[in-house]
Amino acid sequence: MDKLGILRALEKKVLWLSSWMIHNANHLRDNTDGLKVGGHQASSASIAGIMTALYFDVLKSEDRVAVKPHGAPIFHAIQYLLGKQTREPMENFRGFKGVQSYPSRTKDHADVDFSTGSVGLGVAQTLFGSLVQDYVRAHGWGLERREGRMIAIVGDAELDEGNIFEALLEGWKQGLRNCWWIVDYNRQSLDAVVREGLWARYEQLFKNFGWDVVIVKYGSLQQAAFKEPGGDKLREWIDRCPNPLYSALVFAGGAAWRKRLNDELGDQGDVSRLIEKRSDAELVALMNNLGGHDLPALLDAFHSVKGDKPTCFICYTIKGFGLPFAGHKDNHSGLMTPAQMEVFRKANNVREGHEWDKFEGLPIDAATLEDFLAKAPRYQGGERQLKAARIPVPDELAVSIQPTMSTQTGFGAILNEVGRVDSEFARRLVTTSPDVTVSTNLGPWVNRRGLFARETVADTFKSESIPSTFNWEFSPRGQHIELGIAEANLFILLSALGLSHVINGERLLPVGTLYDPFIARGLDQLNYACYQDARFMVVATPSGITLAPEGGAHQSISEPLIGLAQDGLASFEPAFVDELAGIMGWSFAYMQKDGGEVSERNWLRDETGGSVYLRLSTRPIEQLKREMTAELRQQIVDGAYWLRKPGPNAQVIVAYTGAVAPEAIEAVGLMAEDRRDIGLLAVTSADRLNAGWTAAQRARERGLVHARSHIERLLADVPAHCGIVTVLDGHPATLAWLGAVNGHRTRALGVEHFGQTGSLADLYRHYGIDANSIVAAAQAIAPGRPIRHLKALP
Ligand SMILES: Cc1ncc(C[n+]2csc(CCOP(=O)(O)OP(=O)(O)O)c2C)c(N)n1
Ligand SMILES: [Mg+2]
Questions:
Q1: Is the beta carbon of 319 within 6 A of some atom in ligand 1?
Q2: Which of 97, 163, 459, 535 would disulfide-bridge 488, Cβ 3.0–4.6 Å?
Q3: What is residue 323's predicted lDDT score, i.e. its pLDDT?
Q4: What confidence score (pLDDT) does residue 601 get?
């Protein structure tokens, strides 16, 4: 049997297994909750041919793939045939611990290169994955490995997602190579049939950005028919036929094709005979034979690409190809009925009870198929999920602390110090920013380490001897990747940099900066990066209403809650630069931990690691003169420490986070005259405190009776009647939960409404986070003698 025959048999099997997997989950498996299970038989069928050509022939071990999310069943079926997936999780598709609805690096225990799910993101991930591969190799790492192609299988409607075009532009700027986007051009989205002639817009667009475009429109049967007498007329008809009509005829079948073609091409000599001489079945085979379902056409297209130019393949397909609802515009969530499945089973020669057998019903013997699969180029290069050693991180990141300083300045100073020394740690650091490099204080680091580009570009201002604070020279050795203003790109680039250890086998320590409010602009991308366990540090600065004159459009309110709730991201908001230095040192080690399940004993993910979010400020505040002990550093990392420990008769404590430290300190100072036992709690990470508390409670409920979290220990001696005033420049709910730890009455101060321009004093007063408001809140929840200094509130 020749290769093509084997691939055709495997294509059939892949379609069968994917359809059966979905059928089994929806119709056969016990359904205990009455919820629809779902799965996309039609979208999967659409890529059966493309995926067969790729995984069984075209892909090499070093290639990396993002599969269209709802085509996951095809991916799982292929992995099963290749011996990388077992039957049980497939029987449990979309069930607990079963194979996932959308390919997942972390949840599928199979060989997933990039997770997908939120359409558009996996596509951009391949582009940035390729840029990162170039970065790694330009720095002289991993050169013993072959360069991989980064490949996305893209739904045509997926191309409506704007993030793809943001990525495309960035790819052009950075000289993208080795990237393939294979568009499943079935001309159907979830709801509808797509606009006519989209392919031509895409063709132009991709070419404009320096890509090659390969249109895989006609299958080999069609190509042969076009060469017959009258074939050119048939081809013209196909090219003229509107998308919805073609889809409808595909759905309607042979008789409908014949009628329509006769109506429009009858009595026209050669072309009429071309149609007449075919049976209905042959006519269907011919008209359905679009390039994206034709293995010879696909193999030819993929294998013809030489060189590393980015390439977009537009593969014409039919949604639901080979299934009863092929071409029907409502087929997105369509499932074959049990009766239809029965017909499909018989058509595939699958005996009852043998539905999961790998080679059941194929016209080729098992030994031949096994042998072919064992030789698939995809698995000829050893282990595909790579590992990289940890980079040693100094315990203490050096920084010289000025008497008055902001955390943002501190951040720049710390990186500047790191950049000064030629250590492995410094070499593996890579920074990036969407056009806010200078304004987030990365300038000194970039001056030392340079900008990255594959080709050297001199700084014209420097060569023209025009003085400038910043050296803007690009070279392959540079360690800062400058992005255009697109926060979505920042997070996908961080996602790609942060997976380098598993994708390229070379560890990077990525640090990305942006303004805090614009996290929301790339939030889905941030979530996506965390979901696939990429490891990075995102530094968001400035933040809150503290950037007062900038006004409400740039002031962030909800970001601390994002930091609290985002899985896979440890969030910190330090007030002082010595805290920041401790947190950053710890973070670079945390980013390198091994991953895996979060266990009850591992409350703070300290064994499994994750990414880190630092919310910083431009407000210069007076620094504390103190010794940074190991114990204090640990408390800072765990999320809080007593700046002033409350006495046994405390009536009130103030817990603050971040840039409002001076207000909290001032308020406590004012109150201390009358309330000697007052306490002041510095909260450096509401996120880690909260995670620890939740996990400790859960652990106790499961029998670990001695489990205590950091915040429980800190509050253990605070008397029951004591009130807590919490305050931060962000949404008050971030710290409001502190009262629930031990049942203390709590008043949570913060910002709930859009900010506005003003001076710091104006705004802190207006939003009620100044010292006066803190004192007033304390008076209200823990009445004592009125404080003399208290001013009337506005
Ligand atoms: C960001 C996002 N929005 C919406 C969805 C829901 N969704 C899943 S598939 C789909 C349509 C995709 O159409 P297309 O890309 O053409 O793939 P096809 O189903 O035709 O294979 C939509 C809207 C999603 N997964 N992600
Ligand atoms: Mg589509």
A1: yes
A2: 163
A3: 96
A4: 58
